[in-house]
Structure formats: C-alpha cells, structure tokens
Amino acid sequence: MSNETHADKPVSRAPKIGVFVCHCGGNIADYVDVEAVARAVADEPGVYLSRDQVFSCSDAAQQDMIDVITADQLDGIVIASCSPKLHMHTFRNMAGRGGMNPYQYVHVNLREQCAWAHRNDREAATRKAIALVRAGIAKCRLTRPLEPITLKTTPAAMVIGAGITGLRSALALSDLGIQVHLVEKSEHVGGYVGQWHALFPDDVDGNRLVSELMEQIRRRDNITVYTGAEVVDKSGVVGGFTLTIRRSNGETETVQAGAVIVATGTELYQPAAGEFGWGHPRVTTLDAFKRHAESASDGTLTWDGTPVRTVAYIYCVGNRQKKSASCPNPNTYCGRYCCSATVHTSAWISRRFPQVRQYHLFRDMRAYGRNELLYEEARNAGAVFIRYGEDDPPVVSSEGNDRVSVTVKDQLTGGETLEIPADLLVLVTGPVPARNESLQQILKLPLSKEGFFKEIHLKLRPVETVIDGVFIAGSCQSPKNLEESASSGLAAVSKAAALLLKGSVNKEPLIARVNPEACAWCGQCDAACPYGAIECVNENGREVARVIESLCKGEGACVPVCPKDAVFVEGCTDDQIRGMIRSLAEDPEPARQEAQA
Q: Which of 136, 217, 160, 212 is nearest to 442 (CA)?
C-alpha cells in the first residue's frame, strides 16, 4: 500500500525530483506519520511526486521506483528511510538501473536520526522528519551527474598473517590465478593452530593441517611466503598499492598489490599476577595445558614430574569482565570458542587419562551448535560442571607448591559452597586483540570498541573496511572459531578477486575539488589532508592546489581550512549545504499544519 501526491506544476519545471518516504515496517511508521511527511513535501520546489512506501528496499518497491524514474524521466530522487550505511549502495544501484545518474539520489535517515531518537513524541518526530526531507530535497535540487573514477588494478594481493585464515585465503587467491604475497611476522606459520594437535570438534590435528596447507602453498608458483617479516609502509590506492616488507634481518622488499587481506589473528589473554591464583606453579592456562597434555606419551598425566589426579577449570578468565579499579579497561565481550575448546579438551583428557577427575567452574556454557555434543561427552565421562555467579567468582588459595584449593558457590545446587582441592588449576583465557599498532597506522584501519579491526557493516559488508581495497578476515575482526575464520577468509578473497580479476575498479567520485581561479597556494589544505591527496602545481604561471583523485577519500578536512573557500567536496558543495541550512531555518509552521492535517 502506498499513497502518492503529485504537485500541480508545469511539465517544464526543472529539475523533476521524486520523493519516497519509507515506513520501514514499523521502525519509522510507529513513531512518525509517514503519510503526512509525504504530503507535506509534495509542493516543495522541484518535487514532481511524493510517495510513501512500506519497504523501500524491497524488490517490489525498487522496481516501482525504477518504473517511475524511467516513465517520468526524473532528474533526482530523495529516499527517506533507514541508515545510509544499510542501503545507500542499494538505492544507488537501483537509480542506475532506472537510467538516472546514481549520484543524483539523496538519502535521508529517518530511522536512526528521527524515529528512534524521538519515540515518545510522534508529533515532534513528524515535524522533524518533514524538515529533514525538505533539507534532502534542497540538496537534491543542486546535485549534478557524476561519474566514477576508473583505476587499473594490479593482479596481485597481499595477505598479512599466515595463520589458518591467511593460509587458506592465499590458496584460494592462487586458485583464481592471482599472485599472492603472504607475510607472517613470526618465523613459523600456522598461528596457535599449528601448536595444537586435537582440535574441536572432530580431533583434527592442527599441526598436520598447517603442514598440509603449507605443502600445497610450496607447490604454487604464484604464492611467495615471507616469514619473520612485517609490512612497514604502504602507499597508493585500491588496485595499485605499493607495500614495503621488512624481514627480521633488516632487509626490505617492495611489492605491488591491488588488494590487501589482513588476517593477523588474536592473542590470548594474559592473567594479571594473582588473578585466580596466577603465578602459582600449579596454575596454568588452557593453551599451555593443552600443549602439555598432548606431549605426554606414557599414559600418565603429570605436572612438574608429579601425577595429576584432579584438574579444575575456571571459565571466562579475561572475558566478560566488569569495569573496576583493578580492571579499568575490561574485555566485556565473549570469547565465543573458549567453552567449546575446554569441553573438548576435557573429553579428550577423559579418553586418554580416564583416572583424572575434572571440575568445570563456568558462568554460562556457550558450546553452541554441534559443540554441545562435546559438553555431553565430557559430562558423561564424569566431568563435574559447577556454575558460579557473575558477582561471586571462585576464590583460589594455595596448599603449598603442589596443590591449590578452589572455593566456589554452586548456583546449580542453590548456592552451596564447595571446596575443590586440585593438583592443577586451568584458567580458560579467551582471545584479545593482537597488538598491531604499527600495522593499524600504516593501513589506517579503524578499531571496534573492543580493539579489533572494524568492518564497514557487520551484515552487509562484513569483510570490507573504510579503506578501499583493504579487507579483514578471521579473528583479527572478532573472536571466531576455526570454521568461522576460514569462511570469513574466503569471503575476503571473493571481494578482493572481484576487484582484481575485472582489471579495473571504480572509485567514488565524491572527492575534493579545487577551484583554481580562487586558489592562491598556501599549503593549508595539504597539511590538513591525512591521505596526502593534495599537491602544488603550476597553472598559468600560478601555484595552485590540485587534488590527486586516486588518493582522495572525500573526507573533507581540506575544506574548512582554505582561507579562499577554493576547496569543496563533490556531493557536499557549499551551495548544497547552504541550501539545506536555509530549508531547515525556514518557518516550520506549514510543516506543522501538514503533520496535523
């Protein structure tokens, strides 16, 4: 269902703008009178039609807009819906299919910036929505056709990080005929997986898996592996990056790559001194315990030469923390795979060392999917699971150097206090962001609030970053298990290959421009640009600024510092911004009357 209002205006009036106001189901319509918004803006200068739609992003609604653009030869469209982060590219592509220049579409965010911000005042939210749409129309009237900037691509990619994600990504790129430069900071490939043998859920040998992948890589002529090396410099843009690699011996090498996949993985949380007994000779981490147990060969589990009869595990060490004086920068996220890794290790220990008693002290068991079968196996093998409260963690005390004691209140038995003497206490530590400050600065990658590399959009663009041509994969983005890491690596490969195999890439034309007649080179724009995208050139005997199109991101830091107002950004020109401000500053009374009609 939709309602449409045509303004009674001469056919020759230019431009012809179509306005589409989205209900977004109830996300907008529950808090904003969407139909009143469409009516209120129908008589705005340049508006040819104004219509409301239930879901503008749906295939049917997009086809409806294409039909209108084509039949009525619209010059521009304004779509008032949810965040442009979700559907800006959706609607640009739709406008292009309708034969309209995609950059003459203007997006107005009515969901996050209006409906959700004013849930308790429908009338005021509607007035604000009308004002925002009117501002979008004012901007649309001043749009002009733009064309993407075409850049040639180098048919090569760099993969940074040679863990499982990086190894698998390198092989997938190689299969597509793309030259690969695989860079690993340590002297050995495989990351943590290469240090372990039995991996959950199927006891696959991690070390053997890494060896098999490396054997395949050695047979590929189009993969070059750099171990003990790191990226120390980057220049260029998507399709044509120049990257400098420095080896541990100080030698450097420069390579060309059209795309970069970052798969640097994570580190494991390091407990603080005294945290759950950390520092005691009988307290270790799951990682160290797993490697130690896998190295045992005589059928008896020992630690420091003495038999281990009782093992206690404490979960969520270093994850899901609360801010406190002792923990000012908590890791509030879940490690995701820690529970599964622990119950798998427990089941493996029960099969190999059946005489060992095991106690699991957990907050919440998050062995999701088929990993729940591992939990069942460990429990059926005799492991005891004890749930402790979030605000009442276990207390660890020493019983000399050969034993520790763990006191815990079991929430599964009504808060009964239990004391568990253990020969070995295993702290289940989760993943934390790897320390990659240098790489982050070189690639200019943003971080999430947890400190991992951040994607553009978790659902719609999950491996892309704000730096065109640079992708993230695996657990450097967030905690992931082996399967999830490999899958995200293949997703990054598909995105990178789509750029490289085409031979060229289209870059957004929404970049800075300089009016050379107004410019009197002062260098302030160059100093403000974080991308080095401005240079001084001689034009008709005068020094003026010029934007290097391939480097400019349209970030706009150069605009406000120019004393001559000679710099502007396409899509956000001074005239467009002033037009929006004038629209917002106009008397809102007519809009209020429309909203109440």
A: 160
The enclosing H or E element of 374 equals: helix 372-380
Are 277 and 396 in contact by the 8 Å Cβ rule? The answer is yes
**264 with 439: CB under 8 angstroms?**
yes
**SS3 for 46-106, per residue?**
CEEEEEEECCCCCHHHHHHHHHHHHHHCCCEEEEEECCHHHHHHHHHHHHHHCCCCHHHEE
Cα distance between residue 396 and residue 275, in whole Å:
9
Shortest CA distance to 129 belongs to which of 40, 53, 2?
40
pLDDT in tens, 420-429: 999 999 999 9
Does residue 127 have a pLDDT over 70? yes
Q: What are the φ/ψ torsions at residue 512 (nearest 5 degrees)?
A: -75, 150
Task: Provide mean pLDDT across the span 3-16.
Answer: 53
Compute the distance between CA of residue 463 and CA of residue 159 in angstroms, rounded to an integer: 14
pLDDT level of residue 100 (50, 70, 90 thresholds): very high
Q: Is the peptide bond before 590 cis (omega within 30 degrees of 0)?
A: no
pLDDT, tens digit, 9 for 90 and up, residues 46-92 = 999 999 999 999 999 999 999 999 999 999 999 999 999 889 999 99
How do residues 520-537 score in pLDDT, each as one tens digit? 999 999 999 988 899 999
Beta strands in 295-412 (DSSP E): 302-303, 306-307, 310-317, 357-362, 384-387, 395-398, 404-410
Residue 109 β-bridge partners: 81
Strands 259-262 and 470-472, how do they pair? parallel
In whole angstroms, what is the distance from residue 275 CA to residue 403 CA? 16
| 12 vs 389, higher pLDDT | 389
Tell me the C-alpha distance between 543 and 462, whole Å.
Answer: 43
Q: Are 70 and 98 in contact (CB under 8 A)?
A: yes
Angle at which helix 338-352 crosses helix 372-380, to 10 degrees, equals 40
Give the pLDDT confidence of 449-485 residue by residue, as tens digits: 999 999 998 888 999 998 889 999 999 999 999 999 9
φ/ψ region of 233 (left if φ > 0, alpha if ψ in -120 to 50, else beta) reads beta
Diameter over CA atoms, the chain: 94
Type of residue numbered 174? S
Amino acid 11: pLDDT:
39
**Where do the domains of the chain lie, and which CATH numbers do they carry?**
4-146 (3.40.50), 156-265+434-505 (3.50.50.60), 275-431 (3.50.50.60), 512-569 (3.30.70.20)
Q: Is this structure's pTM higher than 0.90?
A: no
CB atoms within 10 A of CB 128: 23
Structure tokens at 341: 């890794």
Which residues, in sequence order, are CB contacts of 237 under 8 Å at separation 6+?
A: 151, 468, 469, 507, 550, 551
Q: Which residue has the higher pLDDT, 201 or 137?
A: 137
So what's the pLDDT on residue 379? 95
Cβ contact 383:358 at 8 Å: yes
